[in-house]
Amino acid sequence: MWSLDEIKARNAAAGKRARATGVNPYLLRDQEQLEEMPPFPFPVMGDAAEKFDKEYPRVDCLLVDTTGVGKTWELALTTDQLVPRLRELLEEYGPVYLAFVGVGPFQAHLGVWKKGKDR
After folding, report:
1. What values do phi and psi take at 39, rounded to 5?
2. CA–CA separation, 16 vs 94, rounded Å?
3. CA–CA separation, 46 vs 66, rounded Å?
4. Tens digit of pLDDT for each residue in 36-65?
5. How far apart are CA 61 and CA 66, in angstroms?
6. What is the pTM of this model?
């Protein structure tokens, strides 16, 4: 199990790598892309996602199970629950950007931004 300090340090390091390599969130344009998931192509941006928050409105932050063995009664979305939720977000907002903004040993926060600059 990681300590809170370890999680913060790992996410700061992920942000540093994302900034250094120019990583941007994954653009989910249509339902067809969901048919190819999993695996999920979302980058880990850590605290580098704060820059994206300035450019696009964040519409959700989903807690997701990263182990692949999550149960449907847990708070974190399982793989089987994530795809339908992404489908709902596509229907509500149209194309959305997706990136992991915080990653722990068993769960991660998946940031969701709507495409377009209107807030």
Report:
1. -70, 160
2. 30
3. 15
4. 888 889 999 988 888 888 889 999 999 999
5. 15
6. 0.85
Sign of CA dihedral 30, 42, 103, 75: positive
Which residue's entry shows tokens 């959305």? 96
Domain ranges of the chain: 4-114
Q: Please give the full DSSP string across 68-119, using - where no structure is assigned.
A: S---TTSSSBPHHHHHHHHHHHHHHHSSEEEEEEEE-SSEEEEEEEESSS--
Query: 3-state SS string over 19-34?
Result: HHHCCCCEEECCHHHH
Six-digit token pair at 51? 């820059």
d(CA 35, CA 83): 9
CA end-to-end distance (rounded Å), the chain: 38
